[in-house]
């Protein structure tokens, strides 16, 4: 510990200056710290980069005893402890990666009152001896980091987090502070409930990340689109590219490497040593692109991530916010770019329909997807829409695609009627399955082998849609799906079906407003010979 700590009690502001070298608190930090120092509970919702760590580190240094931090981020514990040590803060951790000797050394330090902070993996609380250990030492506070892991429907759910209510039951007098960057009211309420934080003060920071530019584009050739973006706007920058599947992670990483962009893969199917090595390189080297599934990123503290790109649609607005939030933690301009298309909607609807769990669970997943689609299809400011999801208001931001180039809308009622009538026609042949591609071929009047085989050229709707291109029709179908005017079957083919809502469009009593897609600029490189 720094020599200054010999003073009997230091104020929070002194610790901030002397240990961390900062001269002022940010946002709610002062009030949060004051609450916990005084022995009260706190629930802190603050975006990534907002400064959550100091909210428990400073009270741990000001109060007598050790601050016990519950964190699921085992891979980062060593780094966190090392970083604290360089500041003169005495910290240790207990998790499954240690050998018995190392663990006993940390336990002894804790019991001797020689630790300011003790990081604990949640599964440690499964072991009775851990509770025993904590009983024998002096505890300044409990900090529950990544507290949204207790939310059962959430994307980061950890069953061991449900166990954390024991902290309150066992040590009712020890203050607790739960922290998360997830912000919806549902998660908020679930955290308070499951962690028994009934009397906690709630601190909800603004979730706006003004330096992040939000952009959502229609997916056409996603890897080529990504490459264009990186070459034009982010040459040499570090960034994260999210893909849904492991296979697509591998392919995309290879594609970027083949095009002289240094990229590494990260997904749960890789050997844990490879994963750890790739993560370490990403953190330490400059200008690397991490291509990953959503398994990557929680707790990653790399300030200069200049872009986060999604090649597939995130499952929820919360997930999207968390993942894009890893960009620009240093406050400098960063890009959040998402490419999404018809196939994303079809695939995700199908995944929901075939997912485990009861009807209520599927409804919840469906509602999450709908909110994500609404964000993708909005013609208004993305930031306004994103913050509205977290019940925060904002003015149009001037730093998102819809603000920078307001999208045109067009009356898509007639194309919608054409597409829906085609679906209705095919729907009469109940035993047949058709993906969107076949539907579009019929509209365009393309004599494909499948159309010949099924004699679909004789349908009255064959060739009624030549006014739009293949891509435009896919855009129409995608937007109709997003608006609930079309549905996807859980049949494995992504067969499109009418919904109750479709009827009004077909009868002509309901009009359909569509977002005009910006055409991708044609490039010489894309022209094919032969
Ligand atoms: P979070 O955990 O909320 O994502 P961190 O606790 O990692 O955020 O803080 C993000 C960055 O901001 C860190 O580099 C941290 O040192 C810095 N920081 C936090 N609070 C302050 C402050 N009051 N003054 C200056 N820098 C701060
Ligand atoms: Zn905007």
TrEMBL record:
Record field: catalytic activity: Couples ATP hydrolysis with the unwinding of duplex DNA by translocating in the 3'-5' direction
Keyword Magnesium recorded: no
InterPro entries in alphabetical order: DEAD/DEAH_box_helicase_dom, DNA_helicase_ATP-dep_RecQ, DNA_helicase_ATP-dep_RecQ_bac, Helicase_ATP-bd, Helicase_C-like, HRDC-like_sf, HRDC_dom, HRDC_dom_sf
Positions of the Helicase C-terminal domain: 222-373
EC number: 5.6.2.4
Keyword DNA damage: yes
Bilayer-spanning residue ranges: none
Cofactor: Mg(2+); Zn(2+)
Domain Helicase ATP-binding: 33-201
GO MF term list: 3'-5' DNA helicase activity; ATP binding; DNA binding; four-way junction helicase activity; hydrolase activity; metal ion binding
Domain of life: Bacteria
Enzyme class label: isomerase
Entry GO terms, CC: bacterial nucleoid; cytoplasm; replisome
Keywords, ordered alphabetically: ATP-binding, DNA damage, DNA recombination, DNA repair, DNA-binding, Helicase, Hydrolase, Isomerase, Metal-binding, Nucleotide-binding, Zinc
GO biological process: DNA recombination; DNA repair; DNA replication; SOS response
UniProt record similarity statement: Belongs to the helicase family. RecQ subfamily.
The name this protein goes by in its record: DNA helicase RecQ
